[in-house]
Amino acid sequence: FGSGIVSERTGILMNSGMDDFAIPSVTSHYGLPRTNKNNFIQPGKRAMSSMVPSILVSPTGDVKMVIGASGGPKILTSTSF
User: Fold this and answer.
1) pTM of this prediction?
2) Do 37 and 55 reside in the same domain of the chain?
3) Known binder of ligand: residue 58?
């Protein structure tokens, strides 16, 4: 799950966002084709992703809610409510 790396300071599990890059003719971990040329690997690029981790804070900076979801191509529908 994720990268397997957890931040010592925050305890947050780091993502595996490098898997979002597209390599022509290689399917994703979920068996989906990777045909989006905008996500081909290039120097200095950030992969397009559906990850939506969110930390909601009050006006004084107190953490009120932390939300996110796993599920690859189903992340957006998993976090919407």
Assistant:
1) 0.48
2) no
3) no
